[in-house]
Design brief:
504 residues, alpha+beta, 6-stranded mixed sheet, 23 strands, disordered N terminus
Length: 504
């Protein structure tokens, strides 16, 4: 592997006095299949090696430094034209080294872990600082974290032959469910990540992270019209995620969501009430609201919510959570990419903006503990505040009552993408399908519309919250500053009293 290193600076806050510990802080998982000694051996490093690299990283007087080792193995298998005919694999391996000095960050990475290359990367990152070396030791108590994704049969142990029958079954079931099906695409992608983290406060953590995504695309033809739709299921789970029940669920949903499009129309556009279905409509929270709660945007006074901490921002019955502890969810993590234990964080509590989403830098700025939201795409990237699994807790309304309360509006169900302007809070979502609501009943199916609004206003305009919270099991990947990380989302059915619907 070729070596690459670089230095990047950014505005950030002082995060404390850096120290080089004489005692390591072990944060190993309850699942002892990969313990600390095995993880150190996996990367071919020792505790003394880590101390040595941190010492060099702080030789110019940085306030804080950390090392993020990663070895990720990714596999993809795809079916097209009735046969499994594509496969691929990828390996990411290396270490990223970060040094923080005042409000600046230096970062370097190398795609191997030889001592010379690590020391060179540490010196590159250290150039952000200017001063005397900081190496006083510190004693840190040992911690243990609950494992949210235990492994029975790992993806490393699972070959192509074990996955192929699931793709073939998915293909056959989609064709069998509707005579209008003319084409099926299906895929299974899995990854396994070894993570080793060490910092200048004496914390050493390790994780063994699985991920799987199974998807089916259904293409139908009726007369001259062709429609397509898809279904995705993803989780931090091992090979046992793949079951006959899961494949049937994907097939049924893909066919149903495609077939309804032949009946769907574009409604007349305008401002109207919008009922957001449970599950995937959680994109409303993620895009319109969640990003604006990430602490780096608020620390820099970019977010529309920068001056609203501890203030009432919506109905008192609304609670919004960002949760990294949902067992097996795609967005869950045992600890974040800064060695901070994952947790359930109430962003909005009883209608009040309760907390931003913090990494170590923003937490230091606000003089609070980090919330476990420091995430990065890979060892090649710096961590920053990112969402994990973002959802609204249940209210006390039946979905049927929410729909019945609307005289004229739309019910939206499946989304394909969305975006938001963090500063203004304005958002737009593309809705793949849903229904008209007329006189309190779902009537004509609709498709291919935009929902446009403002995040704070939309949150304040939620007047009814259902009791049917669903955590969507899709394949969400959140993009921010050029980095993508896996996320989860969810929502009970809610009524937003007025949004702009872009239709005919």
């Amino acid at each position: 592997m070729k070596r690459r290193d670089f230095i990047k600076t950014s505005s950030s806050a002082l995060i404390g006095t850096a120290v080089l510990p004489q005692m390591l802080h072990s944060c190993q998982m309850n699942d002892m299949s990969v313990n600390l000694s095995k993880m150190l051996a996996h990367f071919g490093v020792t505790e003394n090696d880590l101390r040595r690299v941190i010492t060099v990283a702080l030789e110019k007087g940085g306030d804080y430094a950390d090392l993020y080792f990663e070895h990720t193995l990714s596999n993809g298998l795809a079916l097209q034209d009735g046969a499994v005919n594509r496969a691929g694999s990828d390996i990411q391996y290396g270490v990223g080294i970060r040094v923080v000095a005042g409000d600046q960050t230096g970062y370097a990475y190398v795609e191997n872990v030889t001592m010379n290359d690590m020391l060179n990367a540490a010196r590159t990152a250290s150039r952000i600082a200017s001063g005397s070396a900081k190496t006083p030791p510190v004693k840190v108590d040992e911690q243990t974290f609950k494992n949210r994704y235990p492994i029975i049969q790992s993806w490393e142990e699972t070959g192509v032959q074990a996955k192929m029958p699931y793709l073939q079954t998915l293909n056959d079931r989609i064709f069998a469910l509707d005579s209008r099906v003319i084409k099926v695409n299906a895929s299974i992608n899995d990854t396994t990540s070894y993570i080793l983290y060490y910092n200048s406060e004496g914390t050493i953590c390790h994780d063994y992270r699985p991920m799987v995504l199974a998807a089916g695309v259904c293409i139908m033809q009726e007369g001259d019209r062709i429609e397509n739709n898809y279904t995705v299921r993803s989780a931090r789970k091992d090979f046992n995620f793949l079951t006959d029940t899961l494949i049937e669920e994907i097939a049924q949903e893909a066919v149903k969501n495609t077939a309804i499009l032949f009946e769907a129309v574009k409604p007349k556009g305008g401002e109207m009430p919008v009922v957001m279905a449970s599950g995937g409509s959680g994109i409303l929270l993620h895009e319109a609201i969640g990003h604006a709660f990430e602490a780096d945007f608020n620390r820099k006074n970019i977010s529309i919510f920068s001056d609203k901490l501890n203030k009432k921002i919506c109905d008192e019955h609304i609670n919004v959570v960002d949760d990294g502890t949902v067992d097996g969810d795609r967005g869950s993590i045992n600890f974040d990419d800064e060695g901070v234990e994952s947790q359930k964080t109430y962003i909005v509590k009883d209608g009040v903006l309760n907390s931003y989403l913090h990494d170590r830098i923003s937490a230091r700025h606000y003089s609070i503990a980090p919330t476990g939201n420091g995430r990065r795409e890979s060892f090649k990237h710096i961590p920053m505040p990112r969402m994990r699994v973002t959802y609204m807790e249940n209210g006390n309304c039946l979905e049927s009552d929410i729909i019945a309360s609307v005289k004229q509006g739309v019910y939206v169900d499946q989304f394909t993408n969305g975006q938001v302007q963090i500063g203004a809070g304005d958002f737009t979502f593309f809705v793949k399908n849903g229904y008209m609501i007329e006189n309190g009943k779902l009537t004509q199916p609709i498709k291919d519309i935009n929902i446009i609004g403002n995040g704070p206003k939309a949150l304040a305009d939620i007047t009814m919250v259902g009791n049917n919270l669903k955590i969507e099991q899709g394949g969400g990947t959140c993009g921010k500053n050029g980095q993508g990380v896996p996320v989860g989302l969810g929502l009970p059915s809610v009524l937003v009293k007025q949004l702009t619907v872009g239709g005919e």
